[in-house]
Design a protein that fits this description.
about 180 residues; mainly alpha
Length: about 180
Amino acid sequence: MSAMIEIVAERGRQGECVGMDEFADFAAGAMPGLLRYGHALTGNPHDAADLVQGVLEKIGSRWSSVVRKAGDPLAYTRRAMANAHVSRWRRARRENLVPDIPEAPADQVRYAFEDEPLWQALRSLPAKQRAVVVLRYYEGLSEAEIAHTLGVSAGTVKSQASKAMATLRTRLGASAEGR
């Protein structure tokens, strides 16, 4: 984790950013929570680390502007992570035609929670609904804080949470009946 902070801070220093010590302190303090949030958004710790590092690199390069304009850098960072995840997810959904069938991947590492019904149901939610659920029930933010973090209205937060919870109840109810 500290290696990631150093990489981000060093790239910021190369860009001659003002306040890099403040940014390094912010990144060090926020990193555990951002990694947990990223893990819940992406579904695995490796993509979460990539997401956090990419967002912190962008934010670090213009840290003084972020602090001056955003007011709450942590909320700004969470919103940037959600937006970056949605953008990455949209790019990944595009179909890529290839001339040959790809080889089967080597044995992939499986995580302890990967087969849990709740985890599978959470991963199947659309990105915005998952972000709302994670911020509300994992990070413990209020509707107003979630709305501010994601840059949407409180009504959107409520509707996304309602749809997500209905989907989770349906999927988890079906998996409980199947046991």
